[in-house]
Amino acid sequence: MSEPVLQTTELRRSFTQGDVTLEVLRGVDLAVQPGEIVALLGQSGSGKSTLLQAVGLLEGGFEGSIRLNGREAADLDDNGRTELRRDLLGFVYQFHHLLPEFDARENVVLPQLVRGADMPTAVQRAEQLLSGLGLASRLDHRPAKLSGGEQQRVAVARALANRPPLVLADEPTGNLDEATSDKVFGEFLKLVREEGSAALVATHNERLAAKMDRVVRLHEGRLN
């Protein structure tokens, strides 16, 4: 078997307020294989977002090991973690976080330019992804002119623009109605599979979780 694209060992995170210490992650061991789509299932407050923040290298304060494509994040300084995040990860959040002053195409072009792509290549890639998500006629629309489902499709395209080995998604359709959620999530899964990326998708929705390759459950800070 090939090396996991993501592997955590004894991952822990606690928060202290006054005399009270809250253990959110209590020794999480998780491996995600290349191309595998894994549902991270758990109720609100179970620590799903905290786990994604940890493996996404978005904040410190964690104990244990996080390996991305075989590289240990704990061994890296801030610049090294930034490079690892840029080169290996794509992110989709519950709220799209698109840049409001840029249109759909530009929102997908920008992360490619940051990565070092030339403009013609970045534009071609953006238009390919957005067209595949049914947005060929909406390329020059800013987020305010797009529906909620369309905005989230742009966010999906942006996450996959640099062909990341791993996509992290936190309730990616949680702010959409059920019908739109099903459609956008189906498109998300299809695109991730076509691109060959792995994905770790946090959700509390059992129905959506069942559509993925494997389900892991986070309860009281541990996976089971």
From TrEMBL:
<keyword id="KW-0067">ATP-binding</keyword>
<feature type="domain" description="ABC transporter">
    <location>
        <begin position="6"/>
        <end position="224"/>
    </location>
</feature>
<protein>
    <submittedName>
        <fullName>ABC transporter ATP-binding protein</fullName>
    </submittedName>
</protein>
<dbReference type="InterPro" id="IPR017871">
    <property type="entry name" value="ABC_transporter-like_CS"/>
</dbReference>
<dbReference type="GO" id="GO:0005524">
    <property type="term" value="F:ATP binding"/>
</dbReference>
<dbReference type="InterPro" id="IPR017911">
    <property type="entry name" value="MacB-like_ATP-bd"/>
</dbReference>
<dbReference type="GO" id="GO:0098796">
    <property type="term" value="C:membrane protein complex"/>
</dbReference>
<keyword id="KW-0813">Transport</keyword>
<keyword id="KW-1003">Cell membrane</keyword>
<dbReference type="InterPro" id="IPR015854">
    <property type="entry name" value="ABC_transpr_LolD-like"/>
</dbReference>
<dbReference type="GO" id="GO:0089705">
    <property type="term" value="P:protein localization to outer membrane"/>
</dbReference>
<keyword id="KW-0472">Membrane</keyword>
<dbReference type="GO" id="GO:0044874">
    <property type="term" value="P:lipoprotein localization to outer membrane"/>
</dbReference>
<dbReference type="InterPro" id="IPR003439">
    <property type="entry name" value="ABC_transporter-like_ATP-bd"/>
</dbReference>
<comment type="similarity">
    <text>Belongs to the ABC transporter superfamily. Macrolide exporter (TC 3.A.1.122) family.</text>
</comment>
<keyword id="KW-0997">Cell inner membrane</keyword>
<dbReference type="GO" id="GO:0022857">
    <property type="term" value="F:transmembrane transporter activity"/>
</dbReference>
<dbReference type="GO" id="GO:0005886">
    <property type="term" value="C:plasma membrane"/>
</dbReference>
<dbReference type="GO" id="GO:0016887">
    <property type="term" value="F:ATP hydrolysis activity"/>
</dbReference>
<dbReference type="Pfam" id="PF00005">
    <property type="entry name" value="ABC_tran"/>
</dbReference>
<keyword id="KW-0547">Nucleotide-binding</keyword>
<dbReference type="InterPro" id="IPR027417">
    <property type="entry name" value="P-loop_NTPase"/>
</dbReference>
<dbReference type="InterPro" id="IPR003593">
    <property type="entry name" value="AAA+_ATPase"/>
</dbReference>
